[in-house]
C-alpha cells in the first residue's frame, strides 16, 4: 500500500505547470522527475484509476493496491460483506476481493459433524470426500477423538479398532476370543486356525483334508484308525480320500483297485463275480 507524493509549497517567483503552462504562483503543485505539475494536470496524467469505482484516485486520496490493481481506501472492501480490507486478511475470488470470513463461509469445506467451516490451516481429517475438524472425528462407540489412529467405517459410522472389534468382530467358536484376521469356517462358525484341531491327535486341520464324526473334526489318519471300515483285500482303512471309491458286498468292502479276482487278480469292477467263502472269483476262475 502507498500514498503518493508530497505536495510542494507555493513559490515566490513565476513558475509554470509543465503540462498546461499555467502559472504555479501561489498554487500547490507536484513535481515528477523534477518537472512541476499543477494538481489537476498531475491527477489527469499520473493518477491511477480505482479498480472498484473506475474513478481517478486523486493526489490527496489514500491509495491501496493489490497485484497491480489500485483502489481508493474506501473502495478496498470485501465484495460480499463490504468490510474494509485495509487491515484484514483477504483473498481474490474471480477478480473480486473477499475477506477471510466470507471466503471460508462460501468456499471452504464444512465439517460433516458440526456443520461449521474447517478454517484453512486448521487440523482436519478427510475420508470418503468428507472432512471433519480433528476434534469432531470421534468414535461412535467410545465417543473419543480418533485422531491419527486406525479406524473402521461401518456405513455412515466410524469406530476405533477396539470398539469395532468389541461390537462387530467375529469370535472364535472354540476360544470365544476376537478373530481379527484369517481363520477358518466350520459348520458356519469362525475358528482361529490354531483352534481348529483334530479331535484325536490335536494337529491343526487348516489347509489339509479332514472329515467329521458327529460334530467332531478329525484328520484322515485319526478318522481312519478310529472309524473307517477295513478293505477285505488289503485290510487298510477305506477313508473316502485318495482312492476313495469302494465296492461293498454284504458285510464286506473293498477299495476299488483291490476288488480283484482272488485267483487271477483280474479287476472285477463293473464285471460279474462269484463269492467263494472269503474269496471272490471271476467267471473264468469260478468255472474251473
From TrEMBL:
One of its GO terms (cellular component) is Z disc. GO terms for biological process: actin cytoskeleton organization. It is found in: Cytoplasm; Nucleus. Keywords: Acetylation, Activator, Cytoplasm, LIM domain, Metal-binding, Nucleus, Repeat, Transcription, Transcription regulation, Zinc, Zinc-finger. Residues 48-108, 109-170, 229-288 form the LIM zinc-binding domain. GO terms for molecular function: actin binding; transcription coregulator activity; zinc ion binding. It holds the Pfam family LIM. Coiled coil: none annotated. Its main location: cytoplasm. PROSITE patterns: LIM_DOMAIN_1 (PS00478), LIM_DOMAIN_2 (PS50023). PANTHER family: FOUR AND A HALF LIM DOMAINS PROTEIN, FOUR AND A HALF LIM DOMAINS PROTEIN 3. Interacts with SOX15; the interaction recruits FHL3 to FOXK1 promoters where it acts as a transcriptional coactivator of FOXK1. Recruited by SOX15 to FOXK1 promoters where it acts as a transcriptional coactivator of FOXK1. This is Four and a half LIM domains protein 3. It comes from Cyprinus carpio carpio. The lineage of its organism: Eukaryota, Metazoa, Chordata, Craniata, Vertebrata.
Amino acid at each position: 500500500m502507498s500514498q503518493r507524493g508530497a505536495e510542494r509549497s507555493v513559490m515566490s517567483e513565476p513558475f509554470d505547470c509543465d503540462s498546461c503552462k499555467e502559472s504555479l504562483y501561489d498554487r500547490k503543485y507536484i513535481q515528477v522527475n523534477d518537472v512541476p505539475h499543477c494538481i489537476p494536470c498531475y491527477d489527469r496524467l499520473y493518477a491511477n484509476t480505482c479498480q472498484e469505482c473506475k474513478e481517478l484516485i486523486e493526489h490527496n486520496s489514500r491509495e491501496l493496491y493489490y497485484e497491480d490493481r489500485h483502489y481508493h481506501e474506501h473502495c478496498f472492501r470485501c465484495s460480499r460483506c463490504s468490510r474494509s480490507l485495509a487491515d484484514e486478511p483477504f483473498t481474490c475470488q474471480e477478480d473480486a476481493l473477499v475477506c477471510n470470513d466470507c471466503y471460508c463461509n462460501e468456499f471452504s469445506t464444512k465439517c460433516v459433524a458440526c456443520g461449521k467451516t474447517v478454517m484453512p490451516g486448521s487440523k482436519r481429517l478427510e475420508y470418503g470426500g468428507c472432512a471433519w475438524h480433528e476434534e469432531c472425528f470421534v468414535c461412535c462407540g467410545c465417543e473419543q477423538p480418533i485422531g491419527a489412529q486406525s479406524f473402521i467405517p461401518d456405513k455412515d459410522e466410524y469406530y476405533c479398532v477396539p470398539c469395532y472389534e468389541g461390537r462387530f468382530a467375529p469370535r472364535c467358536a472354540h476360544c470365544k476370543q476376537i478373530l481379527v484376521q484369517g481363520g477358518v469356517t466350520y459348520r458356519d462358525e469362525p475358528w482361529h486356525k490354531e483352534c481348529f484341531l483334530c479331535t484325536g491327535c490335536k494337529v491343526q486341520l487348516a489347509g489339509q483334508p479332514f472329515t467329521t464324526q458327529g460334530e467332531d473334526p478329525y484328520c484322515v489318519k485319526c478318522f481312519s484308525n478310529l472309524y473307517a471300515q477295513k478293505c477285505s483285500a488289503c485290510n487298510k482303512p477305506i477313508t473316502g480320500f485318495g482312492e476313495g471309491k469302494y465296492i461293498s458286498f454284504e458285510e464286506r468292502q473293498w477299495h476299488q483297485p483291490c476288488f480283484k479276482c482272488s485267483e487271477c487278480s483280474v479287476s472285477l469292477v463293473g464285471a460279474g463275480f462269484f463269492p467263494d467263502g472269503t474269496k471272490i472269483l471271476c467267471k473264468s476262475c469260478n468255472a474251473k
